Amino acid sequence: MAQRLARAGQVDIFQLRVLHSSDRNTVKLAKSLSKIVHKYKKMFIINNRADIAYLAGADGIHLGEEDIPIHLARKILPNKLIGKTVHSLEELENSQKENIDYLSLGPVFRSQTKPNLKPLGLKKLKNMIKYIRFPFFVIGGINVNNLDKLKKLGRINIALCEGILSSPDPVQMAREIKETLKS
User: Fold this and answer.
1) From residue 47, how far is each of 18, 145, 151, 182 by CA, in Å?
2) Which band of pLDDT confidence, cut at 50, 70 and 90, is reported for residue 102?
3) What pTM value is reported for the model?
4) Taking the domains of the chain in order of start, what are their residue ranges?
5) Per-residue pLDDT tens for 113-136?
6) Which CATH superfamily is domain 2-182 in?
7) Integer CA distances (angstroms), 76 to 33, 79, 91, 149, in order
8) Which helix (H) or strand (E) holds 13?
9) Which of 43, 121, 140, 175 could bond 13 through an S-S bridge, CB–CB 3.0 to 4.6 Å?
10) Any residues with CB less than 8 A from the CB of 65 and at least 6 apart, and which?
11) Distance between CA 136 and CA 84 in Å, rounded?
């Protein structure tokens, strides 16, 4: 699937998020995906695991609250991108002091990826955007049906998974999402 999406040019950044697999299998998968993604000159980010990002030659890492601290990730990946997800204005304010390259804000809408997190909603998201000093992505429950609501917030970057991968034709869905964002 990654090769089809990268070749079609509809996805610019790929992120590997593995929840239940051995380290050996995750490294193997990460190396394979890194090769595919970089062949098409796209970016590749690993979720949570600085060691695997390093071994796979990823372009960066995305960290959550329970992952290693940013300063330790920088020691492993000194010249790579480091991003972090925030779920509230308080977390956003704390993150602005960290040595990160980008933030993800969300989930904006209810998401199957993180079903236990309460969605921010558009009003809270809009308020958070006013305070952000980093490049950012909006995440969580985004699909072609709610993109127009996000477009009203101005120029934003989005990251989504289930909105593409749950589609019967992920390449066509990615194309449709990209076109909707451009219009």
Assistant:
1) 8, 26, 26, 28
2) very high
3) 0.90
4) 2-182
5) 778 889 999 999 999 999 898 899
6) Aldolase class I (3.20.20.70)
7) 20, 9, 24, 38
8) strand 13-16
9) 43
10) 85, 91
11) 9
